[in-house]
Amino acid sequence: MQSGRRNMLKGSGGAAVLGLAAMAGLFRPGSAWAQQGGWNQQAFETKSLQDAVKALGGQQPTQSADIAITSPDIAENGAVVPFTIASRIPQTQNIAILIEKNPNILAANFSIPNGTEPWVNTRVKMAETSKVYALVKAGDGKFYYASKEVKVTLGGCGG
Amino acid sequence: MADPMKIRAQMVGDKVEVRVLMAHEMETGLRRDPSGNGGYIGAWFIQNVTATCNGRTVLSAEWGTAVSKNPFLSFRFTGGKPGDKVQVTWTDNHGDKRTDETTIAAA
After folding, report:
1. Which residues of B touch A40 (CB under 8 A)?
2. Average pLDDT of B62-86?
């Protein structure tokens, strides 16, 4: 099926080919990702903070000073950008990392059970310089976020 | 079968700090196939991660393609003591699965 689509693309005009190819690239993951139990595909396909929060079952998120994002201000290599997210919001249930200018905004969503510190440290890819959001779901079902701008000198989507 | 994870679990004060390094390509599905036939390398990434301590879930996560290749993860939980077993399991979008465990070390 894939080769058939490519052949069709080759037959059409130059600019249209680029546009269609980009679209094909965007839509491909949706069909290629197998649905696993316990994996919120809808949330991982969102493009904006608002949509991601909705897909995670929330309403309008509130900005909060109680979430700390620790990361380099300038990341030399967008393929590996370390982030530490710490939340002081009581009963933090989830911590999510969202990168505004990535193809899909949601990078990771951690569930913090009782007894686990609302603190996670991981490494993510960034396509380009972008605002990064740390999103926290509290025990009352409300969503809070903090944001930070991280500059990327070499994007993480090479190849 | 995927390569084993490297897991360290160590007491930090009264908490257990767990550090996990997984071996996984984490392909986004948006990268061009270098063979030049115009296709894309299919998405292949870890979707679910679960960590347990003596059978109690201490962290679970859902990941997208934006998590870096050979993912690193670190977190802290209370209620563990030296000698307890920490087990980490991941599942990727191909349904491949890997579980590794370690023993909590004293500070």
Report:
1. 62
2. 94
